[in-house]
Amino acid sequence: MVTPEKEVYNDEAIMVVLPAFYGEMGVLPKHMPMMVALRCGEVRIKTLDRVISYVVDGGLAEVTGQVVKVLANFSEDMSEADPEKASREIVELESLLENAELTDAELDRIKNEIFKYRMMIKISERRH
Length: 128
Prior knowledge:
The chain folds into two domains: 15-77, ATP Synthase, domain 1 (Sandwich); 83-127, no CATH class. It has helices at residues 83-97, 104-127, and strands at 15-20, 23-27, 31-46, 51-65, 67-72, 75-77. By secondary structure, the protein is of the alpha+beta class. Helix 1 runs antiparallel to helix 2. It is built from two helices and six strands; from the N terminus they run ββββββαα. The model has no long low-confidence stretch (mean pLDDT 91). Strands 1, 2, 3, 4, 5 and 6 form a six-stranded antiparallel β-sheet that branches. 30% of the residues lie in helices and 40% in strands.
């Protein structure tokens, strides 16, 4: 999995669960090749001994037999996530929504950011 800033994950997995545009999609070895549009959501990478969880902010996934390539706009390792920081970000972003001068594009970006931070909080709560 890569973002514009860095390579996030490059190792073996027994299953990858993707936040596909129309719902979650599980990918096992020998899956049919395809390209998948990703929405903001959770990518779960299951290895033999653990599940690694990332929040992504949209992107694409390419599935080719034994390989899943995820190209994400943004990714955060949920083992390093800070739910208190995410809560603060939500409050700040919600205050921006009160600005009547926002364009449709700005409004969509802010709503997507709020969704992303809420997803981080939800996943953090589930992990504890």
